[in-house]
Write a structure and sequence with these properties.
It catalyses: UMP + diphosphate = 5-phospho-alpha-D-ribose 1-diphosphate + uracil. Its EC number is 2.4.2.9. This protein has 209 residues and is an alpha/beta fold. It is built from six helices and 13 strands. Strands 1, 4, 5, 6, 7, 8, 9, 10 and 11 form a nine-stranded mixed sheet that branches. The protein has a two-stranded antiparallel ribbon with strand order 2-3.
């Protein structure tokens, strides 16, 4: 079973609380999502492999370790996942980026694909799939199916908020995938929105409603 990590940090709780507030505007919402993504990436990237290098300090030559971030691929699920992209790229700036456009059909609640553009994936790539909200889990499962169909194997999901129902759906379908979440909320309502949640993350990021 993949790892399930739920952040338990006062700074993250503080920032999520501000994001939940309906009066928080898109500028502050984007900044807070970026900051929380940075904190999540710090934890999610613990397993990245390193290689040993020689380093000349001002005093002596010593050994150091480097991450090969060219073997990291970030996959934001459009459009809300774009709000997390810069947070990961700031820590692994040479990573590749794959774009996957998926929306949830309001009637069936199933995922519908509208755009895919990926770099080449190999067995030794570490892949981070980004989406602020893990609600039903259907869109995330679709995204993970696509990533695996492209050759991805070492996959980590990163989300801001998640419903217990969505976590279970993803874990059942993709037990090999690690999941990193800032906070787990209470449940889904009858319209498959996370409760208490924070509304539609994409709309709040880009003021589309």
């Amino acid at each position: 079973m993949g790892k399930l990590f739920v952040a338990d940090h006062p700074l993250i709780k503080h920032k999520v609380s501000i994001m939940r507030n309906k009066e928080t505007g898109p500028k502050e919402f984007r900044e807070l999502l970026n900051e929380i993504t940075l904190l999540l990436t710090y934890e999610a990237a613990r397993g990245l492999p390193t290689s040993e290098i020689d380093v000349d300090t001002p005093i002596i030559r010593t050994k150091g370790e480097m991450v090969d971030d060219k073997k990291v691929t970030i996959v934001p699920i459009l459009r809300a996942g774009l709000g997390m992209l810069d947070g990961v790229l700031s820590l692994v700036p040479n990573a590749g980026v794959g774009f996957l456009g998926v929306f949830r059909d309001p009637e069936s609640l199933k995922a519908v694909e509208y755009y895919v553009k990926f770099p080449q994936l190999t067995d030794n790539h570490q892949i981070f799939v980004l989406d602020p909200m893990l609600a039903t889990g259907h869109s995330m499962n679709y995204a993970l199916d696509v990533v695996k169909s492209k050759g991805g194997k070492n996959i980590t999901v990163m989300c801001l908020l998640a419903a217990p129902e969505g976590i279970k759906v993803v874990q059942d379908a993709h037990p090999d995938v690690d999941i990193f979440i800032a906070e787990v909320d209470e449940k889904l309502n009858d319209h498959a929105y996370i409760i208490p949640g924070l509304g539609d993350a994409g709309d709040r990021l880009y003021r589309t409603k």
